[in-house]
Specification:
Order of helices and strands: HEEEE
Number of strands: 4
Helix content: 25-40%
Number of domains: 1
Radius of gyration: 24 Å
CATH topology: Glycoprotein, Type 4 Pilin
Largest sheet: 4 strands, antiparallel
Strand order of the largest sheet: 1-2-3-4
Strand content: 15-25%
Distance between the termini: 64 Å
CATH architecture: 2-Layer Sandwich
Structural class: alpha+beta
Number of helices: 1
CATH class: Alpha Beta
Length: about 130
């Protein structure tokens, strides 16, 4: 009987490793982009909630408050953003936690202007991933 060798050749293994590397180089950046979009949603939701609270304050007292701590919504306890505000804007600044801001997206700021009812993003174009479709 002939002895038949079984297994993969080195070329076949290299092709498989190459294909996995190409797929990973595409998939990993997309994964981090989706994760950052999810984190940015926290900032958008918080800014929208604070803006709604400012609108309720306007209806109740006739003016926006300059101290967001007086509103009926808390601006504390967010994992990825710090919320600040005054009588004209509400701002969510991406916080880094114990480390530097994420290298791919950096620190960015979401600013809601009460007069125009619009959210703008300050930072590099890659940073403002939250407002991209």
């Amino acid at each position: 009987m002939k002895n038949i060798k079984q297994g993969f050749t080195l070329i076949e293994l290299l092709v498989v490793v190459l294909i996995i590397g190409i797929l990973a180089s595409v998939a990993i950046p997309q994964y981090f982009k989706i994760v950052e979009k999810g984190r940015a949603a926290e900032g958008i939701n918080a800014v929208s909630a604070m803006a709604g609270a400012q609108d309720r304050e306007l209806l109740r007292t006739g003016a926006y408050t300059s101290n967001i701590n007086n509103l009926d919504v808390s601006a504390t306890g967010l994992k990825f953003f710090n919320i600040t505000g005054n009588a004209t804007t509400v701002t969510a600044t991406r916080k880094a936690g114990n480390a530097a801001c994420p290298s791919a997206y950096g620190c960015y700021t979401l600013k809601y202007t009460l007069a125009t009812k619009k959210i703008t993003c300050t930072g590099s174009p890659d940073s403002c991933i939250a407002l991209q479709p």
